[in-house]
Write a sequence for this structure.
């Protein structure tokens, strides 16, 4: 299992580096593709329940969050996204009024609203990290400029992937008391500690390599480790509710998009606001 995980990382790393470095349409296209595949996985899982949210409306707002973030990035973006959130909430109610749905109107409305927030709004922070002019040091490698908008995304992905590995190895070879057995029986407290330590080490090393204080990298990594595990548990909570092991089979030994990017979805907003605090003097 671990060998397959390692091979998935080796083959996925160059693609991730290219998309993050290219940015622009490449990153937007990748984000849209990931979001739509994730929506398909999400829908297929929830079809096993009595929930009948409006997936067409959810897809519309997923695309709206991503496209508006990319094309309208600027000082007024937060106001626009807030408008989209309010608009999505209102239309979720209206959609349920106009369609039969499942046995619970409250649940259908909630999932219709939650879906684009989780798969669109959270994911849009990857675009925001890439688009924001951070003002951090710029480096060169063999004549190639390495901008902060690029290396912060790389730090995010490497930290998230490393914490998964740290949690997996510590949980498997050390074991110990369970973390949340009612949600994810395989997760242990020592696995959580392993995730936090691994994330802190990778983020600190990343900050040091790009000329930023390693102490802030340690703090960021620890926060990413905790929030990333919460993202993993949130995904496990849904999977346990619907009775599936994985959301998909795209990544060998990892599952689907939602299985692989669960901690990225939770951690992208955290990284963005941490960098706003650290480099821009506030939120």
């Amino acid at each position: 299992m671990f060998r397959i995980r390692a091979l998935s990382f080796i083959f996925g790393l160059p693609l991730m580096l290219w998309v993050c470095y290219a940015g622009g349409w490449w990153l937007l296209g990748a984000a849209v593709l990931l979001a739509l595949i994730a929506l398909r996985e999400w829908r297929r899982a929830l079809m096993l329940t009595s929930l009948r949210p409006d997936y067409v409306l959810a897809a519309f707002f997923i695309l709206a969050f991503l496209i508006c973030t990319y094309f309208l990035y600027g000082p007024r973006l937060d106001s626009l996204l807030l408008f989209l959130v309010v608009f999505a909430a209102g239309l979720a109610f209206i959609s349920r009024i106009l369609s039969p749905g499942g046995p619970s109107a409250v649940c259908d409305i909630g999932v219709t609203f939650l879906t684009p927030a989780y798969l669109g709004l959270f994911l849009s922070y990857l675009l925001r990290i890439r688009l924001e002019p951070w003002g951090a040091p710029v480096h060169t490698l063999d004549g190639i400029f390495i901008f902060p908008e690029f290396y912060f995304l790389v730090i995010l992905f490497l930290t998230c992937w490393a914490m998964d590995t740290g949690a997996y190895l510590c949980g498997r070879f050390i074991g110990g008391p369970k973390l949340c057995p009612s949600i994810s029986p395989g997760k242990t407290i020592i696995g959580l500690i392993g995730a936090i330590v691994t994330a802190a080490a990778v983020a600190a090393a990343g900050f040091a390599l790009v000329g930023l204080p390693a102490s802030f990298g340690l703090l960021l990594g620890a926060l990413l480790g905790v929030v990333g595990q919460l993202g993993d548990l949130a995904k496990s909570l849904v999977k346990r509710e619907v009775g599936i092991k994985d959301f998909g089979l795209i990544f060998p030994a990892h599952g689907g998009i939602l299985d692989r990017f669960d901690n990225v979805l939770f951690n992208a907003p955290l990284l963005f606001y941490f960098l706003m605090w650290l480099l821009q003097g506030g939120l």
About this structure: Residues 2-279 form one domain. DSSP finds ten helices and four strands in the chain. The two ends are 41 Å apart (CA to CA).
